[in-house]
């Protein structure tokens, strides 16, 4: 594979999806069809169908391990159908969430075990990790307030409505992951202004995937 894989991670309300949209707008004129932007769960019809089941607020009876398995299943299909072909084509792949989300949300947030969820996803991904993960860090109470203030109520999902303690566990797990894998996971302070956050993330992308931005490429 000749492409470069970069994931975006963060607690709910960190603003990573908005940052990804701004970054996509900035990079598309430079990279054109060499840029692939996708998301998890989702990224293709099968994975999007699984996403709808996972995030449906009506599915209150969903067992936590069922939830984790569905995320892993969506991830496997996403890899097979979307990410791997793009990497083989030499593309720069930017993905909104990946394995670290499952470790943080299901492993720590749902308290079913970070190591167990990581092992499940090792099988689902065949060990493929991003070259760079940009972690947008924000305290749980700040992220939840942003959701309350700005998100369309129709887009609030099962995870958004969890109690603050759940989101505190998620953030703590992300910080542990960043400390354990500092070469891959780079932290961006998401309490900064949106422009500052985007600038910091773009700098990390261009440092990690410099070949895409070399004059003449």
Automatic annotation (TrEMBL):
**Record keyword Transferase present:** yes
Q: State if ATP-binding is listed as a keyword.
A: yes
Catalytic activities = dTMP + ATP = dTDP + ADP
| Assigned EC number | 2.7.4.9
The record ties this protein, via CDD domains, to: TMPK
**Top-rank taxon:** Bacteria
What GO terms are given for molecular function? Answer: kinase activity
**Entry function:** Phosphorylation of dTMP to form dTDP in both de novo and salvage pathways of dTTP synthesis.
- What family is it from? Belongs to the thymidylate kinase family.
HAMAP family named among the record's database cross-references: Thymidylate_kinase
Name recorded for this polypeptide: Thymidylate kinase
Give the species. Levilactobacillus spicheri
Q: What gene is it encoded by?
A: tmk
